Each structure stands twice: as structure tokens, then as C-alpha cells.
Amino acid sequence: MKIIGGPASQLLASRVARELNDKPILCEFDKFPDGEQYIRILDEDIENERVAIIQCTYSDSDLISLLQLIDACEDAKQINVIIPYLGYSRQDKKFKNGEAISARAITRTLTADNVFTVNVHEKSILEYINANSANDLEASYLLGNHIESLDLKNPLIVAPDSGAIYLAENASSKTGIEYDYLEKERISGDEVSIKTKNMDITGRDVVLIDDMIATGGTMAESIKILKSQGANDVYLACVHPVLAKNAVLRLFNAGVRDIISTDTIEKAESAVSVAPLIADSLNKI
């Protein structure tokens, strides 16, 4: 299978190719003077070949690049598309009259034989993709493996709420690390208590885990609360490190020890690669 990396996922595509004992295909990415993007697949004949395009759609221009790459592979025998981070996936329903369901609008533009996402925010939006199959891959157990390697002090993996408890459970499943979630309790009209549901965190290293960290506001408050309740060090782990605006500064100002993420979005915090997960899925096609 030919591995084609888009401009936003060049490192991840190269890692996937290495997992498959191959090299990524060389592509050219450029822009015209008016800002229009240009993409060309170089030095490889992909006609009648099986290809895997790997491109995160973090920005609008990343989506355009993905659509261009799919078009450039029109003569391929089979087109597989891997979108490690699917932008707009949180806009999956109408909250006000007149709103677009942007997740649906975006996924309807995608046409391929097989499409894979990684920890997409809402799996139901995959139904709009024009593909023989569209599947979401679960990366939280990879974070768990990395957490286990950190030699933490009596560690505890904690989800920010009960809705994300599956992430903590998955991350702990192969490591034996205990997990819990944060529970909010309203004490009075303007006073809310946030604490772990079942476990005592006193003197323990705590790892807060979520599918993505965007602005970091909620996580920053959780870090402060956990520290005030006796946690030793507090780490953050996420699949998608959006980390918009001043999120990193906000989190370290709140007292986080470190931020751990995967390379679905290629950032400095991307200490865990989802390449083995993607390569394994491609091997099964």
C-alpha cells in the first residue's frame, strides 16, 4: 500500500509507512500568489495501486489539501483516507435555528473506499461519508501505555466527568492503573464542589485524561482543585492537542506537571504516536 502524507500529517504518515516497512510517497505542497493551494504527488505511479492518504483537518486549508489529494489519486485501485483529527466534528447538531450542521457539511465532501478517524467527537457523523466503510479508531489505550512508562507515584487516571470515563477506563485497561472521574456537586447557589468520585488522591500523581484539550479553561480549574485536595503532581493526557490560543500557558500556570498527547495533531506535546494503530488497521483491509 502506498502511504501519502498530507501537509498537516507528514510526520505521522512517515511513521505509519515505517510501521509498514515502507517509505512515504513524496508530495509537493505549494500555493499560488492568490493563496490557492497546489498539490502534486511526485515520482510515483499510483495507477491501480492501493493508497492510504493521511491528513489531519485541523484547519480549513487542511481540508482543502485532503480533498485535493483524494482527487489526485483518482486512478488508484483503492483509496483509503485516514483523518487523525477531524475538524468541525463538535458541530454535530443544531443548537439554534438556522445553524448549519457543520460536521455533516464537511463529512459529505469526503469520498473514498475506506475512511478512518481517531477518537472522533461524535461517531454518528461518519454516516455522512461516501465510503464503503467509515470507522473510528480508539487511541486512549496508547496514552495508558505511555502513562505506565512514566514511573509515577501511585498514579490515578481521572476523567473530567462521567461522560469521559470510558477514556480513563481504556487507558487503564492494560496497565492496572486505577481510574476515576470528577464529579460536580452544587453546595449552594454560587458554590460548586468538584472532587473525584471514588478515590482518595492525597499524595498521588493524577493524570487527567480527555479526548481533546482546546482552550484548557476547564482543565486549568480542575488542576487547581486537584492540587488543593492533596494531589502530588497533576498531568494532562489527551488524544487531540488542539491547545488553542494561550492554553499551554494557562495549564502550566495552573500547575500542570506535563501535557501528554498523541500526534493526531502534530504538536510539541505529541509524545505518543498513533502510527501503530493506523498501520494495524490498514493491514486488516
From TrEMBL:
Question: Which prosthetic group or cofactor does it need?
Answer: Mg(2+)
Enzyme active site: 184
The Ribose-phosphate pyrophosphokinase N-terminal domain sits at 1-112
Which InterPro entries has this protein been placed in? Pribosyltran_N, PRTase-like, PRTase_dom, Rib-P_diPkinase, Rib-P_diPkinase_arc
**Any idea where this protein resides?**
Cytoplasm
Query: Where does the record place the Phosphoribosyltransferase domain?
Result: 141-246
Main localization category: cytoplasm
**Pathway(s) where this gene product acts:** Metabolic intermediate biosynthesis; 5-phospho-alpha-D-ribose 1-diphosphate biosynthesis; 5-phospho-alpha-D-ribose 1-diphosphate from D-ribose 5-phosphate (route I): step 1/1
Recorded E.C. number(s)?
A: 2.7.6.1
What job does the chain carry out?
Involved in the biosynthesis of the central metabolite phospho-alpha-D-ribosyl-1-pyrophosphate (PRPP) via the transfer of pyrophosphoryl group from ATP to 1-hydroxyl of ribose-5-phosphate (Rib-5-P).
Protein name in the entry = Ribose-phosphate pyrophosphokinase
- What organism is recorded for this protein? Methanohalobium evestigatum (strain ATCC BAA-1072 / DSM 3721 / NBRC 107634 / OCM 161 / Z-7303)
Gene name tied to this protein: prs
